[in-house]
């Protein structure tokens, strides 16, 4: 079990397990799902594995707790060869249905035990309890620490640009079912480009930190997932230190700064415009100084490398990456404006030959034909879709605006608009 929020259903199945154990003078061993196993089919638990382990191993019905590293019970069953396997009937359908069939088959092959399936306790659900708890909100520290936990638990993370509370709600609630698993976005990207554009301003760091923090506050009031903040160059070292402290205090999980100097120009313009890359030592100083001044261990500073954008070459990008990690960077964002992902993959493989653990972040705006799953298979941890909600909203709004003018009424545009009742029901408390 996950055992994140212990409820009467958990107690009931533990009691039943103990009763069967007493019949054979045996022991009750609880397979506790790891964070990685849970994240493979639903959201991270509130408590990490060690915290949940402390809770269940102190239950009077349990003699031993062992990790369950995947949804598969195979390894633990082969290891223990149990007389009984106890599992509630909740796995008769859903993501664990196939695993139930595998358990029955394995027990028959090993000729070692019997599957006991107590009736699932009606009227209570861990999933529903989690949803109810999340609807109340999330504390600042809990949100801040989520990103690091997610990076350890799953790969890759899918992060979606959110430039308003409404776009963040869309990002938070969007999901699809694939092969019995729920696929959803793991957090938000606060983009300087989309934040500027949504205000009708150029993407040249014209929006103040205070204005951007107001947007984040709006997002945080109605969501509970982690947010990564795009800080462009980060500005002067002395100023960046205060930015880090402010973001950390607000509950932002990570900040990304790019190794450029001067007036900000969008990276996808490359050498079509004049852009200057920072000196390695100077950028390392900025990273190191900020790391020394942050308060928690959970806040992350991610260094964005512009070498490939500015055609400085692969070796320059790698030299910078290792230098930035040595200076204290918690992650590396490698950027490219090519239409294929080859240089990103080449960088990742070369980096991973020397560094197996530092998270790698990519923004596949240009090389958009490769899937997040494929990127993850190369060792990339975070995939950011950096501007898509704003770009999509512009086309939709322009289409409706022109349609109203063309037809001199809104009737023809109704099928392109969200229903009024859906809007009223979207936000709790409206109706």
Automatic annotation (TrEMBL):
EC code:
5.4.2.9
Question: What are the residue boundaries of the Cytidyltransferase-like domain, all occurrences included?
Answer: 4-130
Query: Which SUPFAM superfamilies does the UniProt entry name for this protein?
Result: Nucleotidylyl transferase, Phosphoenolpyruvate/pyruvate domain
Enumerate the InterPro entries for this protein.
Answer: Cyt_trans-like (IPR004821), ICL/PEPM (IPR039556), PEnolPyrv_PMutase_core (IPR012698), Pyrv/PenolPyrv_kinase-like_dom (IPR015813), Pyrv_kinase-like_dom_sf (IPR040442), Rossmann-like_a/b/a_fold (IPR014729)
According to the UniProt entry, its GO molecular function terms are:
phosphoenolpyruvate mutase activity
Top-rank lineage group of the source organism? Bacteria
Q: Which UniProt keywords apply?
A: Isomerase
- Annotated protein name in UniProt: phosphoenolpyruvate mutase
Q: Which organism is it from?
A: Campylobacter insulaenigrae
């Amino acid at each position: 079990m996950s055992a994140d929020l212990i409820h009467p259903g958990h107690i009931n199945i533990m009691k039943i397990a103990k009763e069967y154990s007493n019949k054979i003078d045996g022991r009750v061993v609880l397979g506790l799902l790891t964070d990685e196993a849970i994240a493979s089919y639903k959201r991270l638990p509130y408590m990490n594995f060690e915290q949940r382990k402390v809770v269940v191993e102190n239950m009077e019905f349990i003699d031993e707790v062992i990790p369950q590293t995947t949804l598969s019970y195979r390894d633990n069953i082969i290891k223990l060869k149990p007389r009984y396997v106890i599992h509630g009937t909740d796995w008769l359908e859903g993501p664990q249905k196939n695993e139930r069939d595998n358990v029955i088959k394995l027990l028959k092959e090993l000729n070692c035990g019997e599957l006991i399936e107590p009736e699932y306790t009606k009227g209570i659900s861990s999933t529903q309890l989690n949803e109810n708890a999340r609807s109340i909100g999330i504390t600042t520290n809990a949100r801040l620490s989520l990103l690091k936990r997610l990076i350890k638990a799953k790969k890759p993370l899918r992060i979606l640009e959110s430039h308003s509370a409404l776009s963040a709600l869309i990002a938070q609630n969007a999901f699809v079912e694939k092969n019995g698993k729920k696929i959803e976005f793991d957090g938000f990207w606060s983009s300087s480009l989309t934040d500027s554009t949504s205000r009708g301003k150029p993407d040249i760091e014209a929006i103040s930190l205070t204005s951007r923090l107001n947007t984040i506050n709006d997002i945080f009031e109605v969501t509970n997932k982690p947010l990564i903040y795009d800080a462009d160059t980060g500005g002067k070292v002395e100023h960046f230190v205060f930015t880090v402290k402010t973001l950390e205090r607000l509950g932002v999980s990570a900040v990304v700064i790019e190794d450029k100097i001067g007036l900000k120009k969008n990276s996808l313009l490359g050498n079509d415009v004049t852009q200057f890359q920072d000196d390695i030592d100077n950028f390392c100083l900025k990273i190191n100084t900020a790391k020394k001044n942050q308060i928690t261990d959970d806040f992350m500073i991610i260094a964005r490398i512009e070498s490939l954008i500015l055609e400085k070459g692969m070796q320059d990008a790698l030299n910078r990456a290792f230098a930035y990690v040595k200076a204290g960077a918690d992650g590396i964002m490698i950027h490219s404006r090519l239409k294929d992902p080859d240089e990103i993959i080449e960088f990742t493989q070369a980096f991973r030959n020397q560094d197996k653990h530092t998270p790698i972040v990519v923004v596949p705006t240009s090389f958009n034909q490769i899937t997040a799953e494929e990127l993850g298979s190369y060792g990339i941890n975070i995939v950011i879709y950096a501007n898509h909600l704003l770009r999509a909203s512009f086309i939709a709004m322009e289409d409706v605006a022109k349609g109203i003018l063309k037809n001199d009424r809104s009737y023809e545009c109704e099928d392109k608009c969200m229903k009024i009742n859906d809007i009223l029901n979207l936000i709790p408390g409206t109706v």
